[in-house]
Structure formats: structure tokens, C-alpha cells
């Protein structure tokens, strides 16, 4: 097995919720046919964008903060092995136990065994992208363990047997009326007079979850950050449900991606300013919970930290692609993305949707396992403009597209229609005479669009282009002809 930065490099295995059952174009086409979905997502993303813009504009040093976050992440990735080893030492010294998981299957086995060892069969969960990524709830259910989501949006998704569609707001594709119906049909004892007023809906969820908090003996969480110098873990949230999970149960199990470590507490000064403004449009998180190991008589008396790879070391070994691991899961790129706003998160097939998912998921699974995702973008660059740690997502998307083309070329003898078209274009443009003849021949396209002003259908393989867009009608004369008519023959 190869190593990188002292870490064994585990090849992407595509385990967990990182790829869908169908390519992005097929899934997106279905989503575009759901007007209610588009209204729900459009309204929500517009609101979050406006809030973010307002609080970001208050800071005169916002760009300096972004550059600081980028620099801290890059420096951390360069010495990740050292920081992870120190994190393990500090957690162990403070009464915790550290487990290393190569992939989703191993992480699920570790967590399941830890829960079963407590003798309990119910756990409460803090919202966690890592546990969504590995499919932990399904693994626990298969072992006879009931996992209760406590984040309001995650609860809505769980009760409706749905899938998350957003990193920050998993139920962003649902509106209040839909949530009311979900609660009426899934939560026992809900009064039929319940309206879709947010306060009433929140109160129903609060009463339902309070009993879970008071009886649960085991909790499972993720972590926004792990601090190497002290072994501390940090979770930021907006509701307080996470804090209930982190303090009341007897056993706490945290699943954290290895990229979430930061060297020092001082590094959090930067990220605790960047994250809330970029994610929820708030100046600070309503609840920032931090804990270190085990404290006798206070909080959980058994703490386990599961450090998750699941394709991360393979991504880390890529000098350019590792920038995707800088992501702090704020979701700002989703909220600004014109593609995500129209298709929603389910079309991406991965628990990480939107622009960051289009680069992160293919790297965690291997490009061929998620070949369509790097094309789920207009490359407008808005995602880079809002990213709090300046991940150049458009450049990574282009790079992944190139990797996909090269892999396809190496494994398939028959070229794609696009490759044939590009080769033909290159041959034509390599000769001035051939290019001039092609320009004149293009005027035949005027016959196809003379009535509408655009060409709606072209023959294969060009039909792939006109299947989703119109082609412009060629001009009456070519540029060469115009030049010769207005400026005289070219010399």
C-alpha cells in the first residue's frame, strides 16, 4: 500500500451515499419537471443569499479572512499526518478513544459495535454530513439500532423517508405545508388543528424530541472542527438540539472526516467568522459547542472519535485536487449556483450536492464512478466568489472533466460523438481553404431556422447540442466575405 504524508493512501471505493443510481443529466431532467420543487428551492436560496450578502458587507476585511482561511487549510493539509497523530494523542490523554476507519463500511462497523457494546438500542444524532456520507443510519437499523435525527431539517427528512438535498438545510426542497402534512402523518398525537406556522411546527418537533433527549444513553455526532493541540472537538449549530445530544447521554461517538482537523484553537478565530456568515447569514452561530475528552461527573462518561478516510487520502495525494478538502461545508456555493437552484440536490445523487459536491464526490469515489457530476456546472465562477476558503471550484471541474475524457480514451476504443466532432473541427480549422469552404457550407443552416431565427434541431451528433438549446442561424455572409466587401481583398 502506498503512503502519503505518512498516511496510508486508500483508493476511492465509492462506499456510502456518494453517487446516485442515474447520471446527473437524467436526474436533473426529472427535477426540472417539478415546478413546486423549483419554487421551494428558489425561494430558500434567494433568502439565504440575501442574508449572507448583508452580513458579509459589514466586514471590511472579508477578503483577508478568506485568504487566511485558505492559507490555514493549505498549511494543514501539507502536514495532515502530524496534526492527526497529535489529535489522537491529545484525545487519548483526556480519556477518549480514537478509531481509524478506512472507508464507510469500516466506520459503520466501528460505530455499530460501540453502540451494541453499551447494551442500548437507541441513539440520538447530531446533524452530521460524515454520518450521512457513510450511510450510518441504515447500518444501525440493520443491526437493530434505532437512530433518531434531532436537527429539525434532518428530522423532516427522516420522518418522510426522504433524502437530504442540501448541506446546510437538508429539507430545503420542502415547504411549510408539506412539513405540516409530514408531522400530521408521522408524529403520534399531533392535533389536526396544526397549521403551517413555523412556530407551531417547531413546537411539535420540540415536544417530540424532548422525550428522546431525556431517555437516550448514546449519542452520535459529527464535528465541524477537531483541534490538534488539545484534542478538542467543535460542533456549530443553530437550534441547540446538538448540544442536548453532546451533554445528556452517557456515551458520545463522533465521526469526523480527517480533513476537519485544525492545528490550534487560534485557527478557529478565522473559521468561526467565515462559517456562520457564509452558511446561515448570521454573524455568529447561536450554539457553538466544544468538548475535550471525558470530564468525571460532567457530560458523557465515554467518548469515542472515529476518524474517517473514505477516499480522502487519495484526494489528498493530488496536489491540485486536494483543495476540495478545504471545504468547511458552509453551502454558500449551493445557494449561489444557478444549476443547483433549478435542479435541487437530489439530482446530484450524492450527499454532497451543488458545486462542491460536483468536485468532491468524484474525487472520493473515483472520477469514473461519478463521471457526470463535473459537467453539472455552467462554469460561471460564482461558487469561487462566495467560497469562504477560496476553493477554485471551476478550475477543479475543468480538471475533472479532462481526467474523465482521458480515462474514457484509455479504456474505450470507440471515440465519443463529441470527440469525433472536435477532431473534425480541428481538421477543418487547420487549413484556411477548408475553413473557408466550411463557412460557406454553414449557410445551409439558414434553411433550418429561417422562420424562427434559430435552429431547433440538428442531425446527430450535433443533435446532442440542440436537445437542450437552440443554435444560432448562420449570418448571410461570412466574416471573410464582409472584410473583402468593405476593406478589399486580404493581402
UniProtKB/TrEMBL annotation:
Start and end residues of each LUD domain: 84-293
All copies of domain 4Fe-4S ferredoxin-type, residue ranges: 324-391
Keyword set includes Iron-sulfur: yes
Keywords: 4Fe-4S, Electron transport, Iron, Iron-sulfur, Metal-binding, Repeat, Transport
Listed SUPFAM superfamilies: 4Fe-4S ferredoxins, NagB/RpiA/CoA transferase-like
Pfam families xref list: Fer4_8, LUD_dom, LutB_C
UniProt domain Lactate utilization protein B C-terminal: residue ranges: 410-484
Organism domain of life: Bacteria
PROSITE patterns for this protein: 4FE4S_FER_1
Xref: Gene3D superfamilies: Alpha-helical ferredoxin, NagB/RpiA/CoA transferase-like
Signal peptide per UniProt: none
PANTHER family the UniProt entry points to: LACTATE UTILIZATION PROTEIN B (PTHR47153)
Protein name: Iron-sulfur cluster-binding protein
Amino acid at each position: 500500500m502506498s503512503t502519503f504524508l505518512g498516511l496510508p493512501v486508500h483508493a476511492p471505493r465509492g462506499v456510502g451515499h456518494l453517487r446516485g443510481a442515474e447520471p446527473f443529466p437524467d436526474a436533473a431532467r426529472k427535477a426540472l419537471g417539478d415546478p413546486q420543487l423549483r419554487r421551494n428551492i428558489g425561494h430558500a436560496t434567494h433568502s439565504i443569499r440575501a442574508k449572507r450578502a448583508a452580513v458579509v458587507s459589514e466586514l471590511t476585511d472579508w477578503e483577508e479572512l478568506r485568504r487566511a482561511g485558505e492559507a490555514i487549510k493549505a498549511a494543514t493539509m501539507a502536514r495532515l499526518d502530524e496534526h492527526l497523530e497529535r489529535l489522537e494523542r491529545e484525545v487519548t490523554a483526556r480519556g477518549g478513544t480514537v478509531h481509524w476507519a478506512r472507508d464507510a463500511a469500516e466506520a459503520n462497523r466501528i460505530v455499530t459495535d460501540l453502540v451494541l457494546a453499551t447494551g442500548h438500542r437507541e441513539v440520538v444524532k447530531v446533524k452530521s454530513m460524515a454520518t450521512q456520507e457513510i450511510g450510518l443510519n441504515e447500518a444501525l437499523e440493520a443491526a437493530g439500532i434505532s437512530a433518531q435525527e434531532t436537527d429539525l431539517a434532518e428530522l423532516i427528512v427522516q420522518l418522510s423517508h426522504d433524502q437530504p438535498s442540501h448541506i446546510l438545510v437538508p429539507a430545503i426542497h420542502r415547504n411549510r405545508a408539506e412539513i405540516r402534512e409530514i408531522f400530521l402523518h408521522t408524529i403520534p398525537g399531533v392535533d389536526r388543528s396544526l397549521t403551517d406556522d413555523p412556530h407551531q411546527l417547531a413546537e411539535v418537533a420540540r415536544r417530540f424530541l424532548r422525550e428522546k433527549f431525556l431517555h437516550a444513553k448514546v449519542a452520535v455526532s459529527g464535528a465541524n472542527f477537531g483541534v490538534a493541540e488539545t484534542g478538542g472537538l467543535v460542533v456549530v449549530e443553530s437550534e441547540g438540539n446538538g448540544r442536548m445530544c453532546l451533554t445528556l447521554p452517557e456515551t458520545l461517538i463522533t465521526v469526523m472526516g480527517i480533513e476537519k482537523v485544525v492545528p490550534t484553537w487560534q485557527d478557529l478565530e478565522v473559521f468561526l467568522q467565515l462559517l456562520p456568515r457564509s452558511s446561515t447569514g448570521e454573524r455568529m452561530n447561536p450554539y457553538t459547542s466544544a468538548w475535550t475528552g471525558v470530564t468525571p461527573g460532567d457530560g458523557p462518561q465515554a467518548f469515542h472519535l472515529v476518524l474517517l478516510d473514505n477516499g480522502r487520502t487519495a484526494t489528498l495525494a493530488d496536489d491540485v485536487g486536494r483543495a476540495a478538502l478545504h471545504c468547511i461545508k458552509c453551502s454558500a456555493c449551493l445557494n449561489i449556483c444557478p444549476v443547483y437552484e433549478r435542479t435541487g440536490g437530489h439530482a446530484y445523487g450524492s450527499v454532497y450536492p451543488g458545486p462542491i459536491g460536483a468536485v468532491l464526490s468524484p474525487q472520493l469515489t473515483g472520477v469514473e464512478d461519478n463521471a457526470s457530476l463535473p459537467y453539472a456546472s455552467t462554469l460561471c465562477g460564482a461558487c469561487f466568489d462566495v467560497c469562504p476558503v477560496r476553493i477554485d471550484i471551476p478550475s477543479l471541474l475543468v480538471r475533472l472533466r479532462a481526467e474523465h475524457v482521458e480515462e474514457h480514451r484509455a479504456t474505450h476504443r470507440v471515440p465519443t460523438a463529441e470527440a469525433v466532432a472536435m477532431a473534425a473541427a480541428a481538421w477543418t480549422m487547420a487549413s484556411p481553404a477548408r475553413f473557408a469552404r466550411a463557412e460557406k457550407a454553414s449557410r445551409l443552416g439558414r434553411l433550418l431556422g429561417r422562420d424562427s431565427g434559430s435552429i431547433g434541431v440538428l442531425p446527430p451528433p450535433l443533435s446532442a447540442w440542440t436537445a437542450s438549446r437552440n443554435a444560432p442561424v448562420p449570418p448571410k455572409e461570412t466574416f471573410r466575405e464582409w472584410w473583402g466587401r468593405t476593406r478589399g481583398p486580404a493581402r
